[in-house]
Each structure stands twice: as structure tokens, then as C-alpha cells.
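Quick note —
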Amino acid sequence: MSRNRSLLVIAFIFACFATACTQPQPAAPPDTRVADEAAIRAADADFAKFAAAKDVDKAVALYQDDAVAFAPGVPAVIGKDNIHKFISGFLASPGLQVSIHIASVDVARSGDIAIDRGTVDSTATDKKGKTATQTIEYVLVWKKQADGSWKIAADTSANQK
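Predicted structure written out below.
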């Protein structure tokens, strides 16, 4: 009887193990990448509109509070307040016109982070009254917020050669 009892205990343990292994896996979150990409492209277009209107507050609202921006020839700009100062200086350029050309927006399958890459053409009047045009390559790292909106976490750019 002892042998039967041992077999019964082993069979019970095996049955418990097999049942635990066959528990349904949680469903994958819905794939929202298409909608997320559209939201980020719309935010890029909004930035261009805000720049044209010289609306610094709306432009900066696209950034997370702890965002960081890197631009050629200046130290890293960290935090929304400092980014506000930086963008204020940029948007104060006389005759500024900005045109954004998105090369790609790649949203992670997880739906919580995205990379936005492209170029920005900017035209402004320099101190001598001469119109100068510059093309800048950029990469933005966007993070989805708890409310489902997207904010820029990192902004980096380089002058195009």
C-alpha cells in the first residue's frame, strides 16, 4: 500500500504541476503603433505651427518635465524650464520659418517609447540682416505618458553637412 500511496502522491504532484503550466497566459496589450505614430507625427506638425506663431509655451508643452535636449555647440539642456529658455531663444530669431521633414517614426511594440527622426529646415535673418537657411538633422525620443499622450524625453540634433 505504501507503494500505491507514493505513486498517488507523485501523480498528484505531477497533476498540480501540469495544471500550473497550462494556465492561460495574459493577453498581449493591443497593438497601438499605427495610432501612436500618427499622434507623434501630429505633434511634430504642431511644433512647426507653434514655432510659426512663436508660442514657446505650447512648443515646450510637448516635452517631459525631465527632458534633455542636445544641440550643436551648446551644453546639454536639462529640464523643462531650461528647454523653455532654449526654445525661447530659438523662436526669437527674426524672420524665423521652420519646416519639419519626418524621415521615420518607429514606435516600440510595447507602445511606450518611440524614435522620431528627420530634418528641420530653418530660415532666419542674421544680425547683419541677411537671410540664412540651415538644415538640422534630429532624433527625438518620445515616451507615452500615463494619460496616453506622448512627450519628448530626449531631443538631439546636428547640423547637416
